[in-house]
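quick one, 184 residues, struct below
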Amino acid sequence: MEVRDPDVELLRQVAQGDERAARRLVAARLPRVLAFATRVLGERSDAEDVAQEVFLRVWRHAGRWRAGTARFDTWLHTVTLNLCRDRIRRRRETLIAEPPDLPDPTPDAQARMEAAAGARSVATAIASLPERQKLAIILVHYQEMSNIEAATIMSVSVEALESLLSRGRRTLRHSLTGEERRHD
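---
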């Protein structure tokens, strides 16, 4: 039984220059592309630039897309990852600028501040992982990709991806719980 890619017809319309189809495709896929790029790059403005370039490439190359070689979503994430890597290489430094915390006047501000601090701790821990472990964690846990899809995007075997996930999770657990590694 053949798995049907729901984007094939939309891509065909985009390839024919249908601007409405392009807008529908962007509306459907932009949130995931932007979330993925933001997690990889750590900066929303850089992620927005990458997302814009991704959809320009979709517009220019929609006519060359061949159904059956890979799912469109997998290709879209691969293009996004490659553009993020290019941007990181150009950037050369890995500073993640965060806006200052402003006090919230609502009664539940303390709980939100604690949750934000926890989220920042997780984001910092993920950002400190080696690149391949970080990408594996982002693709599988945040982008909700299957191991097969994530391995395809990263150009590694499923076994290698699972090893990256295992090492990344272990490092995150140690980092977030403050556990010291035991040498038994």
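Residues 107-184 form a domain with the Arc Repressor Mutant, subunit A fold (CATH 1.10.10.10).
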